[in-house]
Design goal:
By secondary structure, this protein is mostly beta strands. The chain has a single domain, classed as Neuraminidase, CATH 2.120.10.30. It has a five-stranded mixed sheet with strand order 6-10-9-8-7, with no helix packed on it. The protein has a four-stranded antiparallel sheet with strand order 1-25-24-23, with no helix packed on it. The two termini are about 30 Å apart.
């Protein structure tokens, strides 16, 4: 269902004018959200790393300066083009932030930036990158410490009827993969899933969390692949985000897998809606609670849901906006 116009209502506030805002991350207590704009895939246009001020509605696309980190990996120079998929923000001890980005514009690379927030808004400093091997096709990324990270590997075979069949049936096509400067790339055993999508990590416990789109599962495993477990969830999971009370939000389509979103796939840049829900998952017990459902056709099909300062912010691959609603479930 196509959404006409960009007029907010009493229940839904829109922030429009974006190019497929696929992922969203907060910058601590600052009024800025960082936005991963995927861009127009059909036209081959670049995406952006952008920032949205939720107090003033100011929206800015960020340009990075290049100051390589002598410790972090270098696989080239400041990227001339971005097509950011998932990304991840973590706090630094000096009030700055670390940003990791899956960049699909130059083959496949993981870009690392430093983010600082000043009076005029966030600034980006590019610090380095890691080349992704051909055996890994990443969708999302999460830091596991100062230099390591994990990614969700979606699938390892060419797109075609057999891969489509696997996804439709929920057959495993990928897994979580990890990288660190000493060991390089390796698979995290026990995380096999059908189209692994969103990924998060808890450096304090050493556990990795993965959302499977077509398997409709939430996977948890130690970074070394031990103690892996999974649970069925009622959404075709996309990106994952942490809540203030330490749960993980998984958002995804709730209709027929693959078929239910087909009507939106041929409408690049046009806000298009389909039924979706947001599920909060306890990272220890894997118990879950549906905290938001949308069937009314007023919010584009969400690819991320972020609980921030009492509101739920939802980004989308299928449209030009971030949508905000009141978060009504008490943490």
């Amino acid at each position: 269902m196509v959404i006409e116009g960009c007029e907010s209502s009493d229940d839904i506030k829109y922030y429009c004018g974006m190019a497929a805002p696929e992922d969203i991350e907060p910058l601590g207590d600052h009024p800025w959200l960082l936005v991963s704009e995927l861009g127009d895939l059909s036209a081959g246009t670049s995406g952006y790393i952008s920032a949205l001020n939720i107090e003033t509605d100011e929206f800015m696309r960020l340009q990075a300066q290049e100051v390589p980190d002598s410790v972090f990996s270098q696989c080239g120079s400041l990227p001339s083009k971005l097509r950011p998929r998932g990304f991840h923000v973590s706090d630094l001890a000096d009030d700055g932030f670390r940003l990791l980005v899956v960049n699909a514009a130059l083959g496949e690379r993981i870009e690392r930036y430093r983010v600082d927030v000043g009076a005029e808004g966030p600034t980006l400093t590019w610090q380095g990158c890691v080349d992704v091997p051909e055996t890994v096709f990443p969708n999302d990324v999460a830091a596991t410490g100062d230099h390591g990270f994990v990614v969700s590997h979606m699938y390892g075979e060419p797109r075609g009827p057999w891969l489509t069949t696997k996804h439709f049936l929920g057959i495993h096509t990928g897994h979580a993969a990890a990288w660190d400067p000493d060991a390089g790339w390796h698979k995290i055993e026990g995380t096999e899933a059908s189209f692994p999508n969103g990924i998060e990590a808890d450096p304090a416990t050493g556990r990795v969390f993965l959302g499977s789109t077509y398997g409709q599962t939430f996977v948890s495993a130690a970074l070394d692949g031990t103690e892996a477990k999974s649970v069925r969830i009622p959404v075709q999971s996309d990106n994952l985000t942490w809540t203030p009370d330490g749960r993980l939000l998984s958002v995804g389509h709730t209709g027929i897998p693959m078929l239910g979103t087909r009507g939106c796939r041929g409408l690049p840049g046009v806000p298009c809606s389909f039924p979706f829900s947001v599920v909060a998952v306890d990272p220890v017990t894997l118990s879950q609670e549906i905290v938001f459902e949308h069937k009314g056709g007023q919010i584009p099909g969400a690819s991320v849901a972020l609980h921030h300062q009492g509101f739920l912010y939802m980004g989308t691959v299928f449209g030009d906006r971030i949508s905000r609603v009141q978060f009504l479930v008490d943490p």
